[in-house]
Each structure stands twice: as C-alpha cells, then as structure tokens.
Amino acid sequence: MSKLLKVMIVDDERLIRESLKITIDWASYGCEITAEASNAFEAISKAQKLKPDIIVTDIRMPGMDGLDMIEEIMAFNPCNFIVVTGYDDFSYAKRAVKIRAIDFILKPIDTEEFKEAVEKAVLERHKVLEQEILKLNKLFLDALRGRKPYNCLLVYKNICQVNLDRFYIALIQNDNLEEFDITVHAPILYKQNQIIADKIFQIFEDIYLIECHEDRLAAIIPKEMVDDVDKLCLKLKMLQDMVKKCVNTTISIGVSMENSLETISTAYEQAKVALQNRFYSGKGCITLFEEIKDEGNRDIEFKDSIKNEILFTLEACDKKRLVDTLENLYIKEFKLNRSNIYLIKQISLEIIGTSIELLKDYNINKEIVLGSEFSPYRLMRNLNTIDEIYEFVKGTLLKILSAIREFISNTDESDIKKALDYINQNYTENINLCEVAQYVHYSESYLSRKIKETIGMSFVQYLTKLRIEKAIELLQNPNTTVSEVAQRVGYTDYRYFSSVFQKYTGYSPKEFSKKVRIDNYIK
To answer: What is the pLDDT of residues 324-379, one digit of tens each?
Structure first.
C-alpha cells in the first residue's frame, strides 16, 4: 500500500498559496498538501522536519529567493521541485534547470501546464523512491540475516517512516507453497502474496514489510501500534481470517520477542524459530517465540553431526549402519529423552532434505525415486508420534540408498574412460570439470569422485599433468616462447602458467628451456 506523496507550497502571497492548493485535485495524483510556507527560511525549517517529496515554490521572495532555498533543501532532502514565477527571465529558467527543478512555470498559471508538471514530478519521485526502497529492502534483508550491522539502516529511517525504536517481527508464510509447483504456479503465488501484503497493511498500516522468500514476508511492527503481545495476536488472527476469506489459503506466523534496531537480526532468528513450530502445530498457527524459547536447545547441538553421519552411510550404501544410526537417534535418543516433537520434525525434515540433495550428485531424478507427489512437509504434518516419524524417515532414506546403490552398480567404467579421453583430447583448450561432466552426463561432484577413484588423482591434478607434460615437450624447441607454450597447452595467462610449471618441475619455463639447451649442447 503506497503512501501519499507529501507536498509543500512556498510563496510569499497567501492567495497564491491557496490557489495552488485548489488548482488541481492533489489526491488524484497520489499527493497531499502537508505544509506551506511564506518564505524560504520557513520552508527550509519545515522541510527539515517533514521531508516533503515535492515542493512547489515561487522564485522571488523576501530574504532568500526560491532557487537559493532549493539548493539548501536539496543538501539534506533531495526531492522534486516545481518552480513558479511571475518573472519571464531566462537566467532564472537556466538556473532552475541547473539545480534539477522538474519544471519552470510562469504566472498566471495555466492549469493544464501545471497538471503536466505535477504528473512529471510525481513520476520522477516514484522512480527515485522505488530505487531507494529496493536499496532499503536489500539492506533490511542483510541486517535481518546478520550480514550487515544494524546501523546501515539508520540513514534510511526517514524512507520507511516507521518507528524502529521497539518492535516485533512477525514472519508470515503462505502455506500454499508446499501444495504448488513453484515453477508452474509462481504467478498464482505472487498474486496471493500481493493480496496478503495488502491485508497486512490494512490491519497494521504503519509497518515495514520485507519479502524474504517467494512464500514468506517479514513484518516489522512497532510496539506503539499494538501495545502488547495479546493485541498483536488479535490483529494477526484477523489477518489470517481475512486472507483465508480472500484467497482461500492459510498463513502461518512466527512472532519474535520485543526487540530494538540493535538486535534486529536476533528478532529475525526468533521469528524464524517460532515459525518453524508450524511443523508441530500445523499450518495456520501463530507461535510466539516467548512460548517456545526454552524448548529443545540440547537437541539442536548434535544436529549437524547426525546429518553428516547419515550422508556418509548413504554414500557408502551401508544399509545396516543407516538403520542403526536412525534407530539410535529416534528410539534411543529422542524417545528416551522425550525430546520436543517440534524439533524432531524440524531435524527430520532437514535430514530428508539433505539426503534428497545427495541424489543430485548422482544425477538421479528424485521424482523417480520418491514419486512426483512426494512432499515431506505435507506428509510430516500428519505424523504425530516419534515412531511414525522414525518409520517415515527410515523408509524415505532406504529408497534413496537403494537408488544410489543401483546407480553405482550400473555405472559403466567406459563412461569414466570416455571422460578421460575427452580430457586427453581437449586439455590444450580452456576446459573445466563442468564441461566434462556435461559431456558424460554426470554431476560434477560424482565425476570428480570417480576420476579420483579411477586414476588416483583429481581432475585438476590430471589436467595439470597433461598440460605440463606437453609444455615440457614444446619447450624442447628453442625457438618457442613461454607465452606461445602457455597458449598451446590451455593457459591464457602465461604468468599463471609459469607458476604452475615451476611448482610441477622445480624450474621456471625459461630456466627449463635454458637447461634443455645446455643439455643438448653438452650432448
């Protein structure tokens, strides 16, 4: 929901100011008159406080003329100016253009000419604001994710016009994402998200809204708007009801504790953790971080080590070890310690997601292995006990393990030979592992592994060996320059070639060439 642009009118004659206020319907142009001033000094003072978007000003005023005033205001509040004057003086017009005034209009004002000037000013202002908002969105995302310090936002506080002293972050997720194929239904989701954003602004008005993902919005809600968490939850429930009625989808919401700008990244993490509770409570829930902040901290500590262990057993195709690992995790660890089911679901989804990613390394189509309708989020929602979750995760991972085992057993050694032949034939060109992998229809990571297993060295080591051996052969010719040799063996930068050659042989190319000549002379 876009805000009206703020307009200030500056003229030392009151009747002219009143005339400019009623000459056109400002609201129809997306504007509102927020201030007027009778001289330049008053205008500068008000501009400092109100930060107008457009200023309509006379030139000739007592004390300071309008053009000097424009230069002063532009120094602290770059905005758009429409200059109105009764003096048809080319020097004024020339100076008005120089200081980037949108238009220069003579009195008496022609209404149509004035409308055109306003339209132009509004269009230009929106372009500038859109660019600034894009910058601000990027900065907000970086600050939320901890990539940039909070103080990077301070310079933009006037743009977002939201009190960021104390606030909550509500992370709002469109639950339809898991039901749709994002590549097919992206326009539907986009339209739904636009409606959700509009409803958010209807309920909260003065907040800052950031699109974090294609299905997720972060609303920064000033504390002064809601007084306390209870009122915030009531408004969020109203939002859910409105969205359900308009687009027939649920939204899940995670709410941070009260924070300040200095802790904005902490607030975002709190909201993310709260939103993840939807895996436990189901779609359409509202979860306060305050309510779950002390749950499951111990469980999170070993999450990465468990995932790494499971990946290892999958790649090794060790079925027994995989089952033992999962049983230890779910039956002996989670069940025995009565771990929080929300965290169990979260960890389980991460394990499944990481395992599915492994299929890409082997160029295995996950839909063939798990089915085109497989949705771990949807399936997990209907599981309510540790035993059910354990069986679901085990069954999914065993399918993945079987697919990897079958792929490896069916892999023809001639494919690796084909890859090595391709390298042997093209090593003098600017080739890379990606190119070779595409040639034999493997993923880069899998081909890299197979090359190392087959010849005992990595792709880069093998490519370097071929190139340096060819370079040694070429350097036998005393008439060949180092630069020529580098080009002929696939190096575009002869300095880099010289460095690699020296590491491989112990000699620089020039030293080696000289050594060859001496050896030949002695012979």
So the answer is: 999 988 888 887 776 777 778 888 888 898 888 888 777 788 888 998 888 888 88
Based on the number of CB atoms within 10 Å of its own CB, is 193 exposed (0-12), middle (13-18) or buried (19 or more)? buried
Report the 3 state secondary structure along 356-376. Answer: HHHHHHCCCCHHHHHCCCCCH
Number of Cβ within 10 Å of residue 448's Cβ equals: 18
The pTM of the full predicted model, rounded to 2 decimals, is: 0.48
The strand pairing partners of 287, in sequence order, are 254
Residue 523 has pLDDT above 60, yes or no: no
Name the nearest CA neighbour of 446 among 386, 364, 348.
364
- Nearest by Cα to 244 from 214, 284, 278: 284
Please, what is the average pLDDT of the chain?
Answer: 83
The distance of Cα 401 from the centroid of its chain, to the nearest Å, equals 33
Instruction: Give yes or no for residue 303 having a pLDDT over 50.
Output: yes
The total number of residues written for the chain in this structure: 523
- The CA distance from 379 to 389, in Å, is 10
Question: Across the beta sheet with 80-85, what order do the strands follow?
Answer: 31-37, 5-10, 54-58, 80-85, 103-106
Question: Which two tokens mark 421?
Answer: 């032949």
**125-129, 262-266, 409-413, range with the lowest pLDDT:** 409-413
Residue 54 · residue 79 · CB < 8 Å: yes
Distance in angstroms (rounded) separating the CA atoms of residues 516 and 46: 83
Q: Tell me how far apart the alpha carbons of residues 27 and 45 are, in angstroms, rounded to a whole number.
A: 25
- Residue showing tokens 């005393």: 478
Contacts of 450 by beta carbon, 8 Å cutoff, 6+ apart: 411, 416, 419, 442
Can you give the three-state secondary structure of 120-172, one letter per residue? HHHHHHHHHHHHHHHHHHHHHHHHHCCCCCHHHHHHHHHHHCCCCCCEEEEEE
Q: What is the structure's pLDDT at 297?
A: 43
